[in-house]
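Revision sheet: structure tokens.
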Amino acid sequence: MEAALALTTKIAAQLQSATLGFLIGGMVIAALGTRLQIPNAIYQFIVFMLLMAIGLEGGMEIREANLVDMVLPAASAVLLGLLAVLIGLVTLARLPGVKMDDALATAGLFGAVSSSTLAAGMAALDEAGVTYEAWVPALYPFMDTPALILAIVLASVLRARASGEAVGPIRIWPIVKESLQGGALTALLLGLALGLFARPEKVFESFYDPLFRGLLSILMLVMGMEAYARLHELRRVAHWYAVYAVFAPLTNGLLGFGLGYIAHLATGFSPGGVILLAVIAASNSDISGPPTLRAGIPTANPSAFIGASTSIGTPVAIALGIPLFMALAEVVF
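Predicted:
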């Protein structure tokens, strides 16, 4: 009982962070019918800047890190991406009123990674003074790409079987290429490469790092407005998507926390790294994932998978998931 009370108190304290305040503020002003608009070009620029900063820092850290220490967390990220899709296959896809293609696209999107949630998690850890390995954000593609591939492959196989067609060879590389060419992942990988092979310390410290929190606050405001705007799309599909969107981020995140804890025991993976791995697992793609799934599963309804992810999944991952994992780490470690 005392442990549960302590956990609840810690979650309540984390909910007062500035990052969550901007997210909730965006939802509130959208609900009030504001005419405020952030041009898409500015939104894309903010995402690029944040992911470049994350990539640069991660690349500089990898350059000095022991690569052996990264193997288990990276393998955990791959497993988390696959598990997220398989869990969706045996839960959401079996519920009444839910089509298989829509369920797999939704599970794939929840298995992929959100750059905004990742950045919010990093900011929350920094605010709390919790240290973590700077290469942890580089685990992004290790979870993101396998989840998208598995969702698209399963949808193709199951669709062919349902129609009585022979299952032909499925080309994996185009799916990988589409995933890696997404704007968010491209920015992150570019930053990683520059951090690894260039010497960007001065430009990072003088330009990218000081701007990070301010740009993140604007991104959270936009995400809050977008989340509220997408709610009407979610009303067009089965209510099960809303239920799934509440529980999937927390379930995936707790799986990530558990695998991260195993890595902590085996390799000394830091508590902050465990939290951030859980945040990555809880996130659901809001930039690169949707176009990849639109192309890979064209029969899926975007109102189902994008509506569930943006309107409910991302706010749950940020507003509930991040405080939960941070509070849980204080109890466990």
